[in-house]
Amino acid sequence: MKTSLIALAFAVVSFNAGAADIANGANLAKAKACASCHGADFNKPIDPSYPKLAGQHPDYLAHALIAYKRGSGANGRNNPIMAGQVAALSDKDIADIAAYLGSLPGSMATGHR
Ligand code: HEC
Question: What spacing in Å lies between the alpha carbon of 78 and ligand 1's midpoint?
């Protein structure tokens, strides 16, 4: 009985270690001033060509950020503005930021606008 409780406790701890940390993502987004371009609530970009991020799928956002990090190579995105933004972020930072942005209420919609 005791052993299985300990095993369960370990299972919970390791699950948390792997999960994205939304609070850390919020802190990073603030520290990096991502909203200075992507806009208030990440839903009102300062320029129409800048993407809205609020409510976008975290998987997609993380994939995009990793692609900017890769740069112009295979499976990369070549954008000088975003390359500078992501250069110093670890994979864990990216996962946390993506989870935070995805958790925000957004005006994303499918179909015609
Ligand atoms: C100086 C302005 C600026 C800042 C600051 C900035 N971005 Fe961006 N971001 C852009 C632009 C412009 C694009 C579109 C680039 C392109 O065409 O690929 C973009 C694209 C993105 C995308 C891809 C979205 C999609 O739908 O494909 C993500 C995700 C993103 N930014 C996240 C961030 C995060 C996180 C930060 C803070 C660490 C940040 N950005 C800071 C200007 C900025």
Answer: 12
* Best of 30, 38, 60 for a ligand 1 pocket test (most atoms within 8 Å of beta carbon): 38
For ligand 1, residues with CB inside 6 Å are 29, 32-34, 36-38, 50-51, 53, 61, 64-65, 77, 79, 81-82, 85, 97
Per-residue pLDDT of the chain (113 residues; tens, 9 = 90+): 666 666 666 655 545 556 899 999 999 999 999 999 999 999 999 999 999 999 999 999 999 999 999 999 899 999 999 999 999 999 999 999 999 999 999 887 666 54
Angstrom CA distances, 11 to 2, 14, 22, stand at 14, 5, 20
Half-sphere exposure of 44 (CA within 13 A, CB side): 2
